[in-house]
Amino acid sequence: MPVRRSATAEEARAAAGHTKYQWASFYRFTREEARRIHEACPGRTWPNMPAPLRMETHERLQAHLASEGIPGVSEDIVDWRMVTTVRDALRDAANQSALYGEESARSRPFDPVRDLDPNSEQRQPPA
To answer: Which region ranges are annotated with the description Disordered (predicted)?
Structure first.
């Protein structure tokens, strides 16, 4: 049975047949994949990813799950989760760049002791 996009995490977990601990591992794997996807295709959302990339992601997730003895998940569940996870990765990256961009763009107020060289003839604040 396909998982609706509006399904809750509990509904998706039940559809996957995972325990709480298995589901936590699935979440961790999807966060790692979302970071990888964001690095490869910055600014793109999950539905806008090329199909081959989505299929590779699904296969990598299946391999991660199998390595821990966790049952695999359908493409519906991967789509359900990755829509949110990739969006969150985009938002986190935007927040980081805004934070660092603000710091570097912010100028300090003029301080004559700090900003004026006593050996210089120029006695005006820098532009």
So the answer is: 96-127
